[in-house]
Every structure is written in C-alpha cells, then in structure tokens.
Design a protein that fits this description.
The chain is mainly alpha-helical and 73 residues long. The protein has helices at residues 2-23, 43-65. It has one domain.
Length: 73
Amino acid sequence: MKKRRTLLLRVLDGLAILMFIASFSPLVTPELSTGPYLLGLPYTLWMGILVSILFVVLAYLVSLINKEEPHAD
C-alpha cells in the first residue's frame, strides 16, 4: 500500500510540474492575442481560471492520498 501511495504522489507531482510549465507557455498565455472569448472572458483569463481549478483538484487528491487514517478529519 505504501508503494502504491508513493507512486500516486509521484504521478500527481509530475502533473503539477507539467501544469506549472504549461501555465507559462503560449498554450495558456499567447502573445498579442485575446481571442477566442468564452462567456465574454478573454482566452488568457478563462484558461488561467481552468488551470487554477486543476491545481485545486490536484491538491485535493494529494490530501486524500496523504490521509493516515481512513476516518481522519
């Protein structure tokens, strides 16, 4: 079980590092471009919101994996 938990944590850490790198790439922040718009929000803003939500989900998953006891609060 400990080995599986370590593997899951490494995978989540790798995803977080990839998302961090991608958040500063032209994928999220293109040069001199504001379109396309989604619900009136420019591309960079809604992609930033999406990346932030994904970071929160990753942090939640890590907190679930790091629970020591099954019923820890």
